[in-house]
Write a structure and sequence with these properties.
The complex is a heterodimer.
Chain A lengths: L23 E3 L5 E5 L9 E2 L6 E2 L4 E4 L8 E2 L4 E10 L5 E9 L22 H10 L12 H5 L9 E5 L9 H8 L1 H15 L4 E6 L3 H10 L6 E6 L8 H9 L14 E5 H13 L5 E8 L6 E6 L5 H7 L7 E6 L6 E3 L12 E6 H4 L12 H5 L6 H9 L3 H6 L10 H5 L6 H21 L1
Parallel strand pairs in A: 1-14, 9-10, 9-12, 10-11, 13-17
Antiparallel strand pairs in A: 2-8, 3-5, 4-7, 5-6, 7-8, 13-14, 15-16, 15-17
Helix pairs in contact in A: 1-4, 3-5, 4-7, 11-14
Chain B lengths: L1 H28 L6 H9 L12 H15 L11 H11 L10 E5 L20 H7 L15 H5 L5 E3 L6 E3 L9 H5 L5 E5 L7 E3 L7 H7 L9 H5 L7 E4 L2 E4 L10 H4 L5 E3 L8 H18 L1
Antiparallel strand pairs in B: 1-4, 2-3, 5-8, 6-7
Classes of the chains: A alpha/beta, B alpha+beta.
Chain lengths: 446, 300
Amino acid sequence: MKLKTFSMGGVHPPENKLSAREPIQALPLPKEVAIPLSQHLGAPAKVVVNKGDAVKVGTLIAKGESFISANIHSSVSGTVQKMDEVMDASGYKKMAVIISVEGDVWEESIDRSPDLKRECKLEPQQIVEKMKEMGIVGLGGATFPTHVKYMMPPGKTADTLVINAVECEPFLTADHRLMLERTQEILVGVEIMMKAAKVDRALIGIEANKPDAIEVMSRALTDFQGIEVIPLKVQYPQGAEKQLIKALLNREIPSGKLPLDVGCVVNNVGTAFAIYEAVQKNKPLIERVVTLTGKNLAKTANFLARTGVMANTMLTALGIDMPADTAKLISGGPMMGKAISSLTIPVTKGTSGIILMDAKEARRHKAQSCIRCGRCITVCPMGLSPYFLKILADKDQFEVCESERITDCIECGSCAYTCLATLPLLDHIRYGKTTVMRLARERSQK
Amino acid sequence: MSSVIIYSVVTMSVIAAFAAMILFFVAKKFRVDEDPRIDEVAALLPGANCGGCGYPGCRGMAEALVAAADQGDISSLLCPPGGLDTMSAIAGVLGFAAVTQESTIAVLRCQGSCEHAPSKLTYQGPQKCAVAHVVFAGENGCAYGCLGLGDCVSACKFDALSIDEKTGLPVVDPEKCVSCGACVKACPRHIFEMRPKGRKDRRVWISCMNKERGAVAKKNCAVACIACGKCAKTCPEKIQAITIENNLAYIDTKKCIACGMCVPVCPTGAILATFEPPKPKAKEVAAVQAETADNAAVKG
């Protein structure tokens, strides 16, 4: 059978799913956590606790007040020490709440029993409220506040819920393990999301390199109505929402439009699990699965890590030190993740993995001159001309950048991955894109 | 034979007369009166077309100056490379009193060299400050300091900037800097500042842009401003040129008399001067130190 995939561009980097067989294990609690106030796309949340306050697991510590923002809850029980600036994956310092850990006391409202709770009696509106209250954001990496996706503007309706279980980034296995170990919970979560989006069809796209997940999920489907699991051909960046919709439904989103414009709501499979826990168990988003991996690591693992825990505690939990030949640390996947300068950065809602690379793997080749081979154009999933955008951004031709649709770039990095001249195309394009977006913002403010 | 010559001459004369009439009519009808002063002013400007004035080239500046003269005030316009001399000459042509605006020079507000702020990681991306600024905080971890990739050097049209290989920081050549302000615009971190040249070339400035708390700033860079406030205390009472805002001291050029008293008291050496600063009297230093220590204790 020919597997479905998206039609334009795409690459197939080595998969390197080293940790696919490691079951999810809980990460031991550290002495102190630093929970950043900006773990999501949009405005940072406003702190609602004071220095010296006692908090439990699940206590609201910061409230998302603007339209695109999300609540943040304490992931540990203990005392609020201070508000301080902590370096996060971006390399810049952001405000965070520092909490010292004392025991592990949870809020009474949270149902901690492992039983599956199938029935959901809430109305769609109440489900969306619950998502907002529990601080649910997209766990695929972009961390867009989920409730905003379900507050559909008048006149727009969805007909399909698309669940992204593709995990097209090499190395990462967090979603893969979650599907194997929390299958029923995920499907109940999908059911709740279908109710919230008022649709009767849900498609779960899983890449063919996870046959066990496809099998387990398909087998569990017998109890559920309207949900379908669709195996997809392995192709990066299939996890991007536009590419996923194209692959599953053969619908194309016009430039500058959203999935809702073609009748789709897209969420990650990890988000489905978080929504299950939030709606059925009253549990805020305080922990997520994080993959710790690297070719030079003796052991790899998938941790269920609380937010605000420093990334280096994962190495300690495995009982290993950072290998001496480590030359690069990446937060996220190797294609779209960010290089970080140290492991003392907190795990946030968007941290899908931490990857360690040795010098040979991390080496960047010397950038040569572009030979106009056109490979970057062939692989660009958005149909852009990366080599041309790079030249334009280099020459500060931002108006031409804009008319060449630089803002359509999804920053997947396929162009730089495939470049024969080993040019850092994406770095240049990212500079052009941020500048164009800033100029557009300034223009709209006038 | 002669008829051919006569016909040609007559035909050509008629055409010439006709063309002359058209040209005369066009010249009368579509005549543009250009202010002769524009040419005079343009001749006085340096002609480098650097754009430092904010207008497209020297001709554009000349037009703007004449237009401003018609409005009755040219004081808001300045040709930075030409400086006072040029502006005074132009003012003379346009019938104004000589301008007294002070000329300025670009000043680098960062000392985060390899020695003071050692690198914690290696950046291998595109060698352009603007790109690096989008990607990360900086090799030494300071999110406010110089990235050292030389966007300012390529922006300078007067060859006044160069990267010092030892420190990795740009250096301003005071002889060549015409204070056009191109480096100020080119730097994504806004480290360059245009400051008045000062009397007898005496200038004092805080050479740091870091707005982090003292301890954090000091961790990344040995010469960071830690906003201890000693400089503000040392500044003579009548002057009070130094303010501290967002964990960063700033010397107001309008108030500063360039006495240099603040330079030696700075515990991190973040204040720079273009002259040999005075050695403070031991008593004064002790008094200031005691006072700041008291304040720190109260705050702490």
